[in-house]
């Protein structure tokens, strides 16, 4: 699929069919996330792939009862890994790790779209509960949950800001 078509087709989907995501598709999504740029190429993030029904339900509850998370056959949880960015000091641990994780999540989201899958970025959740559910170390900070699956709905595109309102040009 052509890149700009992928961007145009991506929607936030909150209803999924029960059809599992094929292992080959998951592998392509994870490879895309792994190809994301990162500060100093330190790749200061971790990805937890969750397909266990009980864990998906728990993630939905930890996401302040966004139960649609549990309707997806798969969720990817992106976490910071501060120790990998220590060479950049506090800025690396507190900012670059978040940037790395979110860029990787964006690459995964676009890869899933290119494969005909649906996603939605979930950023509202209790980080301690999510960390416990996925078994992440206490210093890993979950920053995004990305449910992945086949859409059971077709959301319409939403209005976007005009570029003249968004972009501040310095020519």
What do these coordinates show?
The protein is α+β, with helices and mostly antiparallel strands and 171 residues long. It has a single domain (21-154), classed as NADH Oxidase (3-Layer(aba) Sandwich). It has helices spanning 3-9, 23-34, 53-62, 89-114, 127-134, 163-166; strands at residues 45-50, 74-80, 118-119, 142-149. It has a four-stranded antiparallel beta sheet, sandwiched between helices. Helix 1 (3-9) packs across helix 4 (89-114) and helix 3 packs antiparallel against helix 5.
Brief digest:
The protein has six helices and four strands; from the N terminus they run H-H-E-H-E-H-E-H-E-H. It has 171 residues and is an alpha+beta fold.
Number of helices: 6
N-C termini distance = 34 Å
In terms of DSSP E residues, the strand content is 5-15%
Reading side by side through the largest sheet, how are the strands ordered?
A: 1-2-4-3
Point out poorly predicted stretches: none
* Name of the top-level CATH class: Alpha Beta
CATH superfamily: NADH Oxidase
CATH topology, what is it called? Answer: NADH Oxidase
The protein's oligomeric status is single chain
Helix/strand/pairing class, anyone?
A: alpha+beta
Q: What is the mean predicted local confidence, pLDDT?
A: 96
Count of β-strands:
4
Named at the architecture level, the CATH assignment is 3-Layer(aba) Sandwich
Query: How many distinct domains?
Result: 1
Task: Provide the helix percentage.
Answer: 25-40%
- SSE pattern: HHEHEHEHEH
Globally, the shape reads globular
The main pleated sheet reads as: 4 strands, antiparallel
As a whole number of angstroms, the C-alpha radius of gyration is 16 Å
